[in-house]
Design goal:
Chain B: This is COMM domain-containing protein 2. The complex is a heterodimer of chains A (198) and B (199). Chain A has seven helices and three strands, in the order ααααααβββα. A three-stranded antiparallel beta sheet of chain A has the order 1-2-3. Chain B is an alpha+beta fold and 199 residues long. In chain B, a hairpin with a 2-residue loop joins strand 2 and strand 3. The chains are: A alpha+beta (198), B alpha+beta (199).
Chain lengths: 198, 199
């Protein structure tokens, strides 16, 4: 029923913790949002600041964790489902978050809306990242089989991430001129298709 | 049901009747600490020096207490049975009451620790997913093929492994239906009857 929950019901724990959030003053709540957004963007969260902000409302460690959890959920879920600030504001007020708190939260959200979505896009599932490509062109003069070979070859070193273990694996291939020409043509065709989609 | 203590065990616990009750309570506390966090031999040596006995005696005493606690918690024996089992050691009335109190206070924690020791299958840790549409391949252009790629993270005994799976939407639907059917089975009369009887 709520857009920021992906058109599903709001989880019970979120409802419960919204009342915990209401115990902080709205100014402190906006500063809390800034900290939580920094955490979501992997910029590091300053737990000392958070405990100072919540000390007035006499939050215990369980309450602090709960309020960080519920703010993380609201902000990341809203960014995930691309909810605009006003809809988020009206939905949070429906759930019982006081108006001043909601305004503060939504202002922080709108400021960092794009950055949050970028971060979420980056952390989406990707299998086997290609991390680096190195190449070298060699010219074979002669070999144990044939005296005059005179053939160019390309050596490609691909460093990719193993999808199951997340560790980097190196693959080295050497390609003859003809095969390489075919590879290049096919890849250029794929690139054309990709460009036509953007 | 009664706890049957081996002769070695009885010998080890005999040491407890020779010391103050305060010392026995302290040993009880140490025994619980060791069960939760692992044993520390320095404590045995310190206690042995204070009581003027060998550190081996102290170690046997504490380990005897630990074993008594774990066996009684494992079998979830009642107060009466515990008292009868301990009677066999010939301790004073007060010492028996102390041991009983130690057992009752720590039973729940003991049982929780013991429940973590049973063998485990790999269990769910996290699921990442992605919805893609295949538009073209080297062999065929102008396709529209939706696929769902899943990365299932499992945890087994502290080790994490990821499994990469791919499926089309129809199979995914089928998967979801089967799992919902399994969940719904919990609410069937048969399951309810069994759960009621276990509780």
């Amino acid at each position: 029923r709520f857009r920021f929950c992906g058109d599903l019901d709001c989880p019970d724990w979120v409802l419960a913790e919204i009342s915990t959030l209401a115990r902080v003053s709205s100014v402190k709540m906006k500063l809390l949002c800034v900290q939580v957004i920094k955490d979501l963007l992997d910029e590091g969260i300053d737990y000392d600041k958070v405990s100072k902000l919540t000390s007035d409302a006499k939050f215990e460690s369980g309450d602090i964790k709960a309020s960080i959890g519920v703010l993380s959920f609201i902000l990341s879920s809203a960014a995930k489902h691309d909810v605009d600030g006003e809809s988020l504001s009206s939905e949070l007020q429906q759930l019982g978050l006081p108006k001043e708190h909601t305004t503060g939260l939504c202002k922080s959200y709108e400021d960092k809306h794009n950055a949050l979505q970028e971060k979420l896009r980056e952390s989406s599932l990707r299998l086997g990242h290609l991390e680096a490509v190195n190449w070298r062109v060699d010219y074979t003069l002669s070999s144990s089989e044939l005296k005059k070979v005179n053939e160019p070859t390309v050596q490609l070193r691909l460093q990719a991430q193993n999808p199951e273990t997340d560790s980097t694996e190196t693959t080295v291939v050497s390609i003859t001129a003809d095969k390489f020409r075919v590879l290049l043509t096919e890849l250029k065709q794929a690139q054309t298709i990709m460009n036509s989609l953007q | 049901m009664l706890l049957v203590l081996s002769d070695d065990h009885k010998d080890h616990l005999c040491f407890l009747s020779e010391v103050d009750h305060a010392v026995v309570s302290e040993f009880g506390r140490i025994a619980v600490e060791f069960l939760k966090k692992g044993s520390n031999s320095k404590i045995y040596e310190g206690a042995a020096r204070k009581l003027n006995v060998s550190s081996e005696t102290v170690q046997h005493g504490v380990e005897g207490l630990m074993y008594l606690l774990t066996e009684s918690s494992k079998l979830m024996i009642s107060e009466v049975d515990f008292q009868d089992s301990v009677l066999v050691l010939g301790f004073s009335e007060e010492l028996n009451k102390l041991l009983l109190q130690l057992y009752l206070e720590n039973r729940k924690d003991m049982r929780q620790i013991l429940s973590n020791l049973s063998p485990n299958l790999p269990h769910y840790h996290n699921l990442e997913w992605r919805l893609d549409v295949q538009l073209a391949s080297r062999a065929l252009r102008h396709q529209v093929k939706p696929t769902v790629t899943l990365k299932l993270h499992l945890e087994d005994d502290g080790m994490r492994r990821a499994h990469v799976l791919q499926t089309d939407p129809a199979t995914l639907q089928h998967l979801i239906q089967e799992m919902e059917r399994a969940l719904a089975d919990l609410k069937s009369n048969h399951c309810r009857r069994i759960l009621r009887n276990i509780k």
